Amino acid sequence: MSVDAVLSRIDEIRTRIDALRSEVAGGTTTTTTGSSGAASSTAFADALSSAADDPLAGSTPATSAATAAPATSVDAGKGTLATGSGATGADVVADAKKYLGVPYVFGGTTRSGMDCSGLVQTVFKDLGVTMPRVVPDQADMGVPVGSLADAKPGDLIVPKGEQHIVIYLGDGKVLHAPRPGKDVRIVDNWYKDSDIATIRRIVPSEAPATPAVSAGAAASSATDLQTAALLSMMRGGAA
């Protein structure tokens, strides 16, 4: 049974629900037997209504824990990714490039001038992620990345001494605010693993995949719920 067929069936069910409820509300049954039939019809309508409103619910309860979303955080934290904003490493790279050409100003965090950590803080602020202001604190945020070989676009590289911080762009390139007299720019990464104090990943490198629901699963779920509705009607009629 295709998804289109399931949806068509749901529309048909909703039409029947409306008709059943109209008959019950209009008082078409006045005898004891008729009252029992009305109660049965109401139970059937309610059960079908639940099935129609959520045709994909309930068929695989065992998978709910496996597909639960991870805990979210907008503020950067130690040992955790800031997932609450929905930003990814690609977003970090794209936003950082907006500041190319901004002059280096010690302590600056605006387009009129910024330093290396001010650039990092501003980029993540743009993406809805709160970061500390200075390099030593930024170097504690997110999760550690083992080496340059494992670095992904959007990761932060902090050299030993923690006096500077750069944004890794991938393909051996970094973006940073170098020093007075220079501006925000993209250059070849000059750091080796032996030069680096830490590499930090603040947000996920990629957006999480959304699990797809197959047409077969949708049809099976809808069929199960229709069966439950019919059983409810039968129990109501027997009462």
TrEMBL record:
**InterPro entries the record matches:** NLP_P60_dom, Papain-like_cys_pep_sf, PG_Endopeptidase_C40
Q: State the source organism's domain of life.
A: Bacteria
Q: Which GO terms describe its molecular function?
A: cysteine-type peptidase activity
Q: Where is the NlpC/P60 domain?
A: 86-203
Q: Which UniProt keywords apply?
A: Hydrolase, Protease, Thiol protease
Write out the GO biological process terms.
proteolysis
Which family, according to UniProt? Answer: Belongs to the peptidase C40 family.
What name has this protein been given in UniProt?
Answer: C40 family peptidase
Organism of derivation: Curtobacterium citreum
Lineage here is: Bacteria, Bacillati, Actinomycetota, Actinomycetes, Micrococcales
